[in-house]
Amino acid sequence: MTEGQEAQVSEAQIAVHWREEKYIYPPESFIAQANAADPAIFDRFAEDRFPECFTEYADLLSWDKKWDTVLDTSNPPYWKWFAGGRLNASYNCVDRHVAAHGNKAALIWVPEPESAEPVAVTYRDLYRRVNEFAALLRDFAGLKAGDRVTLHMPMVPELPVTMLACARLGVIHSQVFGGFSGNACGTRIADSGSRVLITMDSYYRSGELVDHKVKADEALAEAHKQGQEADKVLVWRRHPGEYGSQTPMAEGRDFFVDEVIGSYRGQLVEPVSLPAEAPLFLMYTSGTTGRPKGAQHSIGGYLAYVTGTSKYYQDIHPDDTYWCMADIGWITGHSYIVYGPLSLGTTSVIYEGTPNYPDAGRPWRIAERLGVNIFHTSPTAIRMLRKVGPDEPAKYNYHFKHMTTVGEPIEPEVWRWYHKAVGKGEAVIVDTWWQTETGGFLGSSLPALNPMKPGSCGPAVIGIYPAIYDEDGNEVPDGRAGNICIRNPWPGIMQTIWGQPERFVDVYYAKYNKNPDSKDWHDWPYFAGDGAVRAPDGYYRILGRVDDVINVAGHRLGTKELESAALTVPEIAEAAAVPVVDDIRGRAVEMYVSLKPGFAASDEMAGKVTQAIEVEIGKIARPKHVWVVPDMPKTRSGKIMRRVIASVSNFADIGDVTTLANPEVVEGIRHHVQSEKVSKNEVPRELTEAEYEEIKSFGAE
Ligand code: 6R9
């Protein structure tokens, strides 16, 4: 069975009940200034205007050559947007703003130590730095259009500089989230076939200068194991001239950028004019198998889509100060810190550290100091800031006109705190539902024209036409849960999974495609892998993943990745990862492992599993608990019943276990796990109906 077919919604036909929230309307002051305030926009993006409607987004860009065909669908599901057109993303995000707005801040970087001053990088500075680094990449690292290069960088301005320098040359960048481990980075170097790694020696996180260069050595060793040699490591220094890592520099392989860049001072590199459908970057994400998926995004379609949605949904005007608190290492940061905002010529704030360092007032001090008026973050950050500093926002004099939430479903109570306390009742909120694969937003209210409804992402965004299907491909009625799909292609959709074209078709299209030979795009709905319900008003409520992916703090972790990491511990015979409902991070991971004969359960064994997961994936994946069990509950065909142990961890009804091969083990596991949780005061609150369905069907056959 392929991955796509394996995925199931939690009993697609069951009704999902929740209290219908009331509409909240945008303030007049917002509407008066909004980029999209005329309802005619809905007509311009009506289904019968597809695909031409998207030229409105493409027209926001500067093209070297206009496209011949808006959408070429001759080879489904490999769509080509703006085919025949040529452009350069670096030119669009940098050069074209220099003449009129050269002295305006493109980026304002806020270092984590509060004693350090924020650093403004003007469009002119950015132009100079991108050109010089592009010259270095071309002449020192030997990179050219079509080559892949892996970046493993923290939240510093050197990261967008590096991305835009790559884009200038047509080099395909693949930024790996800085918090991921050296091994995770190595796997991505190998998968993308990168010869060059660009990293930084160190960065500040929660008050500490973290040694980051050490991960580069681990990454190269892992890539080597997987058959990929990287021969150059370019190391930016957090404090130029001062090395913040304990790891030696490898002679002839590792180079400090601040030492090499001197030879490229003042050099200009002509932006390479590239086909619209040439790849801009890869962004790796988790799927149900261990191998990460490199979602490949195009230059023309992607940049048009993030520019258009930044303009209308983020309501970015050139004179706004926009702060998205996500990490650039995730898709949110690529689309809505770097490419969208810079393409529109606005000021984008980058913060190095954790939101609650040194205290929960930090984000609001940054907002006050910099005059941020658009703020963008995740439900996890909102829950955390609400927990540790519910009254902090009121102490600071900032005013947001607009706020975003992204990455996971947000509970209505948390939404209301965001609206009232953080937004001071003055800001609109957009709850944006989308994915690494989709490049930009799929579901969101259009802030001046659609009212907000807490807990729902809103209607589909303009030009996006979803459908919710049951397992057999029938559309489910409003109010019922099913698999949300997008019926039409759109410019932000990934082009393929790097090096795994079959997987691209299997995971995202095979499930609802009835005829693989069809050349008609109508036959190729995009399967998002999320469960959803549509209300009669057309608002969507996203219920969560329907595959074996655990969304921790808005970040997707594949169960297979977690399990293979646990299995690197020699004593472990079997491993299963399950989600537990977590009041801050949405979901947390719990691991169940069984040992090879001759080994006994111990805290040390559990510690080894945690350690292995940190080494293979990174601290973000650290399990909340590792339960060492004598045996896993299994089907007669030997498949681990993840839904049973997921129910145990969440204190949910375990359901019928009589069909298992070994039903007798369940009670022992339940007793062990739940009594331990009771003694630690970790009994979870009662699950909502949607959560219960997710747990009950987790990893179901
Ligand atoms: C952008 C991003 C994608 C998965 C997605 C869904 C969940 C994202 C959401 C949301 C409810 C929202 N998700 N936004 N669920 N409401 N507003 O998060 O990309 O890291 O690939 O995750 O996140 O389950 O399928 P990515």
How would you characterize this protein structure?
Helix content is 30%, strand content 21%. Helix 19 packs parallel to helix 20 (664-679). Mean pLDDT is 94; it is low at 1-15. By secondary structure, it is of the alpha/beta class. The relative contact order is 0.12. It has 21 helices and 30 strands. Strand 24 (526-534) and strand 25 form a beta hairpin. The strands form 8 sheets. An 8-stranded mixed β-sheet has the order 12-11-8-6-7-14-15-23, with helices on both faces. Strands 5-4-17-16-18-19-20 form a 7-stranded mixed β-sheet, sandwiched between helices. Ligand 6R9 binds next to helix 12, strand 20, strand 24, strand 25 and strand 27.
Structural class based on helices, strands and sheet pairing? alpha/beta
Q: What is the terminal separation in angstroms? A: 11 Å
How do the strands of the widest beta sheet line up side by side? 12-11-8-6-7-14-15-23
Helical content (DSSP H or I, runs of 4+) = 25-40%
What are the segments in which pLDDT stays under 50 over at least 5 consecutive residues?
A: 1-15
Strand content: 15-25%
Taken from the alpha-carbon principal axes, the silhouette is globular
Number of helices: 21
Bound molecules: ligand 6R9
In total, the number of strands is 30
Q: Using the CA coordinates, give the radius of gyration.
A: 24 Å
Main sheet characteristics: 8 strands, mixed
Mean pLDDT: 94
